[in-house]
């Protein structure tokens, strides 16, 4: 039986082999045909892509004969390949295809192979044509307005000629423009003017990026600025960040304005697409501003523009306008001296304006003569390499003419921030308070007002410039200021005592040279990437005796650095904001017994230790925006910190790890009778708020986070009806967050606190939200999240100071503001948001319109619009931004953007899509 089975299997195997051999002979040609046709099809796809790239590159240019002939060859090849594919696909059954193979005059495989050689030859020719087209400079689309036709503010008169030349560059074939000249000649001013007007004259740019390269600029620092301007996500490495930037900008037109370039920067490493110029119909241009012509050449600028100092007549006009024409012209002797002072400014606009403003209050010839003597005999005997002594003398004159020592000291501290850095005014005033530079007031609001008055004085003196705010698309903002690099250089020389400043220069470890640390009173290493530190205390830091140390924004500060800090017992000011501290409080800080100011904000700290009471001199403790909502505070700690004036534990986070931490704080305040002019805290019931109210005015709660208010239908804190028990809190409250509560109504009447910031989230039952006109006059920021019963936010249209509006996860919201009233007259009126700069709409699935009834809205200051998860929102009823203030950046997904309906192309042109 086994023998018979083996014979049968052998017979079947032999038969199968013969069948495979027989039919394989006839199948092979068909298999070859499939393979050849597939290869031919792939080659044609590549050829068509090559044709598309060449057509984009030739877009708008006359089509030469050679590319025209090549395009005809592509069309012929495409027709022939279509014929071959039709023959190949004529039959699908094996027998039909086999007969078709033998009966046709030429096998498909052979025809496909022959045509494949033809297609590849056409590809080679097309690649050569594309390379030649890329190498040929092409002009971008024409400007909408000629530079001379632009209506610009009067203050641009001194730089008008340079601005015109820079704008003409936007319409020519060059890819890079170098703007060079002495410090203070106006290079930054020209770059800002180009940014401000190019939305009108060059709408073909999708993005205009103004970046400050600054001294010691690194690739990582420049990438951070690009990410901030474009609103991209941070990446863990330089290579990953470059890939993200490249991916985003590759298919977009952009203008890159690089200010304060000191040495060649590798833009390709940053992620800037190459080559520059007009590539595949995309316009890529760069303007480089530097003090050195050689640097402009190193950056590839074939076209260069030197900015000269102002001629005598123009210089005098600028000086006279700032010094005051009436005061000068009324006295012939003063007029003569003033012209001599103006001549000492060397035609530099920066100093003509600042010196003129500094001397605007001088009314006698003796005062003017004294100022001239100081300029001719500079008191600065030494400057850093490459710095101008005459420039320092001019800054020194302006510095000496400031109205008080307080204002002068406040100016000098601005130099602790990185060069060309946009400094938040609030952060700056907080620093001045912490350093003890401002007069001491019992009322915290009075201290803040005085600090902002000092900022205004320095701005009026032209020693501080208006800065940019990246949150608002890096456009000029009254929330930030900037110190000119020439003024900063002089400030570091004028600083009393010795300062060690290495801010924003890409440090991986603190300086090791003992000479740098020796006798240094103020040390600023902020905004670096310090991730290494001395291994032992016997390093350069061990002998240092600084009074202030600024380490904020070193996001991976090593533990050894904190261990080294504990020996700096002379410290009175320590800033460790955003330094990556996880969970455990850094106990080394408790050794700094002279500390008066401590900032540990934006970290992940779980609790405060009782050892913190060793800091008996501590006045200001900032733990704001901590990752965890509650920081456990041991009983008795606050009462032992007898000099504490500011305790800011406020955060809008929802990550909770403790049940009740606030009771020990209030108990200590009650038992000790301590004063607390500034308190930011979290509470879970109105009873705690009532206890705080009874401690007023000695305890002023400025920021409160209410959470898990069970059984509370209304928010009592905003009502005048509860002034008797809550009035002490209402008077000073400026910031309020309410999360995870049963509240159904939020109604702020005319006697509600003058809040500036409100944040409401996870209020599932909230249906009514109204804000009276009186209470709404000071609101700057509103954020509403996960309030599903809300259908609209009509009251926000009555907020005159509103700058930021964030709505997220409100499933029931159908419109933002109201529509037409009965009769339809309201729809014809335009609802205006006069100061709104940031509008965020996230996860609003039922939102159909920003304004109901088809009405229009005006957002004259809008800079950034973020929209995601709003599938029903098909229209943006906004009027164009006027006044040449730049276009609005819209962040959303591509499908949503492509489906938007526009009132006109002019309206659409006012928005720059950032599709993520």
Automatic annotation (TrEMBL):
Tell me the leader sequence span: none
Q: Which organism is it from?
A: Hordeum vulgare subsp. vulgare
State the family it belongs to: Belongs to the disease resistance NB-LRR family.
Do you know which SUPFAM superfamilies this protein is assigned to?
L domain-like, P-loop containing nucleoside triphosphate hydrolases
Q: Which domain of life is it from?
A: Eukaryota
Q: Name one GO molecular function term.
A: ADP binding
Locate the NB-ARC domain: which residues? 172-326
Record key words, sorted: ATP-binding, Nucleotide-binding, Plant defense, Repeat
Upper lineage is: Eukaryota, Viridiplantae, Streptophyta, Embryophyta, Tracheophyta
Question: What is this protein's name?
Answer: NB-ARC domain-containing protein
Indicate the segments forming the Disease resistance protein winged helix domain, all copies.
416-489
Q: Which residues form the Disease resistance R13L4/SHOC-2-like LRR domain?
A: 553-652
User: What is an annotated GO biological process for this record, any one?
Assistant: innate immune response-activating signaling pathway
């Amino acid at each position: 039986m086994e023998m018979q089975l083996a014979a049968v299997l052998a017979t079947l195997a032999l038969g199968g082999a013969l069948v495979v051999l027989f039919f394989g002979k006839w199948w092979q040609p068909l298999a070859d045909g499939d393979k050849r046709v597939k290869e031919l099809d792939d080659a044609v796809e590549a050829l068509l892509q090559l044709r598309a790239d060449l057509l984009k590159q030739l877009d708008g240019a006359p089509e030469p004969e050679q590319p025209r002939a090549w395009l005809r060859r592509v069309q012929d090849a495409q027709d022939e390949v279509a014929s071959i594919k039709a023959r190949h696909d004529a039959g699908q059954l094996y027998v039909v295809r086999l007969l078709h193979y033998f009966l046709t005059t030429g096998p498909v495989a052979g025809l496909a192979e022959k045509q494949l050689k033809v297609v590849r030859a056409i590809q080679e020719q097309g690649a050569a044509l594309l390379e030649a087209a890329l190498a040929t400079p092409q002009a971008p689309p024409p400007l909408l307005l000629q530079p001379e036709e632009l209506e610009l503010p009067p203050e641009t008169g001194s730089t008008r000629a340079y601005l015109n030349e820079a704008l003409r560059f936007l319409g020519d074939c060059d890819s890079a423009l170098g703007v060079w000249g002495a410090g203070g000649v106006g290079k930054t001013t020209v770059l800002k003017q180009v940014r401000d007007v190019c939305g009108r004259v060059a709408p073909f740019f999708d993005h205009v990026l103004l970046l400050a390269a600054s001294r010691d600029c690194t690739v990582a620092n420049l990438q951070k600025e690009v990410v901030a301007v474009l609103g991209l996500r941070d990446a863990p490495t330089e290579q990953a960040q470059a890939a993200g930037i490249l991916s985003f900008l590759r298919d977009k037109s952009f203008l890159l304005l690089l200010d304060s370039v000191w040495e060649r920067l590798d833009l390709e490493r940053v992620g800037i697409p190459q080559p520059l110029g007009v590539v595949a119909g995309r316009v890529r241009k760069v303007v480089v501003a530097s003090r050195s012509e050689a640097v402009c050449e190193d950056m590839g600028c074939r076209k260069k523009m030197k900015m000269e100092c102002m001629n005598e007549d123009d210089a005098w006009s600028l000086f006279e306008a700032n010094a005051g024409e009436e005061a000068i012209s009324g006295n012939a002797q003063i007029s003569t001296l003033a012209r001599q002072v103006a001549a000492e400014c060397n035609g530099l606009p920066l100093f003509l304006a600042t010196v003129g403003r500094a001397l605007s209050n001088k009314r006698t010839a003796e005062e003017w003569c004294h100022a001239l003597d100081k300029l001719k005999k500079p008191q600065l005997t030494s400057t850093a390499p490459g710095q101008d002594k005459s420039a320092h003398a001019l800054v020194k004159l302006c510095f000496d003419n400031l109205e008080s020592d307080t204002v002068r000291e406040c100016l000098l501290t601005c130099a602790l921030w990185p060069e060309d850095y946009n400094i938040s005014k609030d952060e700056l005033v907080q620093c001045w308070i912490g350093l003890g530079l401002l007069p001491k007031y019992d009322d915290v609001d009075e201290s803040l007002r005085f600090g902002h008055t000092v900022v205004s004085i320095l701005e009026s003196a032209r020693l501080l410039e208006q800065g940019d705010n990246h949150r608002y698309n890096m456009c000029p903002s009254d929330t930030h200021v900037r110190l000119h690099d020439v003024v900063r250089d002089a400030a570091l020389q004028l600083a009393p005592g010795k300062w060690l400043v290495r801010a924003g220069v890409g440090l991986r470890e603190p300086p090791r040279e003992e000479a740098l640390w020796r006798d240094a009173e103020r040390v600023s290493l902020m905004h670096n990437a310090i991730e290494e530190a001395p291994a032992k205390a016997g390093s350069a830091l061990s002998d240092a005796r600084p009074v202030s140390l600024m380490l904020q924004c070193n996001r991976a500060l090593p533990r050894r650095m904190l261990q080294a800090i504990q020996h700096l017992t002379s410290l009175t000011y320590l800033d460790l904001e955003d330094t990556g501290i996880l969970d455990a409080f850094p106990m080394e800080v408790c050794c700094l017994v002279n500390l008066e100011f401590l900032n540990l904000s934006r970290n992940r700290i779980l609790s405060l230790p009782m050892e913190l009471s060793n800091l008996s001199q501590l006045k200001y403790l900032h733990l704001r925006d901590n990752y965890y909502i509650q920081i456990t505070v041991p009983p008795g700690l606050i009462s032992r910190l007898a000099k504490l004036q500011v305790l800011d534990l406020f955060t809008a986070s929802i990550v909770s790890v403790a049940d009740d931490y606030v009771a020990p704080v209030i108990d200590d305040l009650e038992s000790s009778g301590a004063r607390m002019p500034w308190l930011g805290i979290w509470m879970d019931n109105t009873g705690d708020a009532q206890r705080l109210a009874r401690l007023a005015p000695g305890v002023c709660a400025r920021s409160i986070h209410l959470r898990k208010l069970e059984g509370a239908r209304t928010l009592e804190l905003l009502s005048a009806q509860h002034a008797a028990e809550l009035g002490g809190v209402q008077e000073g409250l400026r910031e309020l967050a309410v999360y995870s509560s049963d509240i159904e109504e939020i109604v702020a009447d005319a006697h509600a606190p003058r809040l500036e910031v409100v944040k409401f989230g996870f209020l599932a039952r909230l249906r009514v939200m109204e804000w009276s006109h009186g209470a709404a006059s000071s609101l700057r920021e509103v954020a509403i999240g996960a309030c599903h019963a809300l259908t609209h936010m009509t009251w926000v249209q009555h907020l005159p100071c509103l700058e930021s509006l964030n709505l997220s996860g409100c499933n029931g919201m159908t419109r933002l503001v109201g529509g037409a009233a009965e009769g339809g007259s309201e729809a014809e009126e335009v609802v205006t948001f006069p100061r709104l700069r940031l509008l965020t709409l996230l996860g609003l699935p039922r939102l159909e319109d920003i304004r109901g009834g088809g009405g229009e809205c005006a957002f004259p200051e809008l800079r950034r619009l973020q929209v995601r998860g709003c599938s029903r929102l098909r229209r943006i009823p906004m009027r164009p931004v006027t006044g040449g203030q730049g276009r609005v950046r819209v962040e959303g997904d591509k499908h949503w953007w492509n489906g938007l309906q526009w009132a006109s192309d002019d309206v659409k042109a006012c928005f720059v899509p950032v599709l993520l």
